[in-house]
Design goal:
The chain is an alpha/beta fold and about 250 residues long. Helix content is about 40%, strand content about 25%. Bound molecules: adenosine-5'-diphosphate (ADP) and magnesium ion. Magnesium ion binds near residues 46 and 88.
Amino acid sequence: MSAKVILDIQNVSRQFGGIRAVDNVSLTFREGEIVGLIGPNGAGKTTLVNLISGFLPVSGGRITYDGRDITGLKPHLIARSGVARTFQIVQPFARMTVLENVMSGSIFAGGHGLAEARRIAHECLAFTQLTSFAESPASELALANRKRLELAKSLAMQPKILMLDEVNAGLNSSEIQDAMRMIKAIAARGITIIVIEHLMRVVATLAERVVVLHHGSVLRDGETNEVFQDPKVVEAYLGAKFASRFAASAAQA
Ligand SMILES: Nc1ncnc2c1ncn2[C@@H]1O[C@H](COP(=O)(O)OP(=O)(O)O)[C@@H](O)[C@H]1O
Ligand SMILES: [Mg+2]
């Protein structure tokens, strides 16, 4: 754990009326790590991503990226500095082609001209295996490919940190295997990945570290193995059945 801290979240909160969706959260993320962000529905995972990426203003606290205070910056400026995210609900520009959708990511975050945006977009389409759909309208893509498009679009922002909000939701197991390979390949480029995921076997495969959010607060932050066997986490989220199965498979490995 000697890599440098790239993202530092200090005492960040966000209220919606009386709901404390994110409640005084402090977390640090290091260069190149893959961190699982888990917790029950409504725990505040998506809100935290919205706060980091500037899509929602914080009610309090400070977010520092690579030594710079990014709290309150506009989303495109945060993206331009190197922080990208995917959306849990994927909504591509339906009437634009797949290529144009990916180019929009590059233009949003990179401020590139069209030729450079197109070059970057083609690379990202190749990486996500969407090249053959480049000229199709985005509306024609099936779910797994829409999820890939979302990934391609965020990669076109050439991020240093990538936050993936349930990119596997609704996919079948072979599609999930493909997505996991892609996520690992992205991390191998040195990009920090924060992955929100409900499938614990996916989290266990990808992430060495897991953060558990519960009622907007950090319930636990630690090594995946330890977090998955922490009685507090088991009780709040994972359930006893999962814990005993996980312990058995960990003992076998
Ligand atoms: N735009 C919003 N307006 C009002 N309440 C919201 C909004 N977004 C999220 N919430 C509430 O904040 C809490 C956290 O939601 P969310 O961050 O989506 O959780 P998660 O992604 O962990 O399922 C929930 O109680 C949710 O209803
Ligand atoms: Mg969510």
